[in-house]
Amino acid sequence: MKKSKIVTTFLVIALSVGFIHAARFVFGPKGKVTFDKRILNRSQGSPNAPVWIVEYMDYQCPACRTAFYVIDAALKEYPSQIYFQVRFHPIKQHRHGLESAIYSECAMRQKKFWEFHQLLFENQKEWEDLILIEDKFHAYAQRAGLNLVALDACVADPLTRETVLKENEDSKKLGVNTTPIFFVNGKMVAGIKEMKAELKKLFPKLLLTNENNGGASH
Fold it and tell me: pLDDT digit string (tens) for 100-114?
């Protein structure tokens, strides 16, 4: 029995170490990332930056809205030091979590991801409680410069939904079960408070105000 426990403990440690190294390979700095090329349109900064940040988020999550402003401040302050990437993790409890991710995926395919991404977060309180959001998202899409015909075709395509759902399932394999979850050079950081602390460690002079920082993880 004692020998069995030792073997079990060894396996748990080995798996944990393996996960950490795998995460660092997938999310580490200096070009060690391997992902679908389409995700490049959801990335900001240089792949040669020393700090890689990957965020798993949901557009209806209040804390993700806060994270948007926090990360935006960091990117503006240290544009050459950070490589940032967005990945979708829509929460089932959020009425429009999946739908907003699908629209954003389609905006990405028209190379208008960041414009649409910003509008969704800036106006989150405007659409989160609506029953039907098509008209509202169309309005944001127009402001972002999207082709609405192509957008509607993309949103209606079952393969688009499958792509977003697969990304969501893949995130669960990495231990993502809430939002926002960040990987900073392979280190998992859960929640906006923890992410702010991590950023302050990396960039002590970074100014993070209390503006737009409400909301808890969802």
Answer: 999 999 999 999 999
Task: Tell me the two tokens of residue 6.
Answer: 């030792």
SS (HEC) of 98-154: HHHHHHHHHHHHCCCHHHHHHHHHHCHHHHCCCCCCHHHHHHHHHHHCCCHHHHHHH
Rg of the chain over all Cα atoms, to the nearest angstrom: 18
> Which residues share a beta bridge with 82?
51
Residue 84 sits at the vertex; the CA angle it makes with 78 and 85, to the nearest 5 degrees, is: 170
Residue 38, burial from CB neighbour count under 10 angstroms (0-12, 13-18, 19+)? exposed
* 212 secondary structure, DSSP code: T
| CA-angle at 129, arms to 139 and 41, nearest 5° | 50
Q: What is the rounded distance in angstroms from the CA atom of residue 60 to the CA atom of residue 40?
A: 23
- The beta-carbon contacts of 197-206 under 8 Å, at least 24 apart in sequence, are 199/70, 199/74, 202/51, 203/74, 203/77, 203/78, 203/81, 206/73, 206/74, 206/77, 206/78
Rounded CA-CA distance 197/154 in Å is: 38
Query: Residue range 189-215: average pLDDT?
Result: 81
14 burial type by CB count under 10 A (0-12 exposed, 13-18 middle, 19+ buried) = exposed
pTM of the model: 0.80
- Residue of higher predicted confidence among 149 and 36: 149
Instruction: Quickly tell me which residue has 């995460």 as its tokens.
Output: 23
> Using CA atoms, how far apart are residues 122 and 66, in angstroms rounded to an integer?
10
CA 99 to chain centre: 15
Per DSSP, the three-state class of 28 is coil
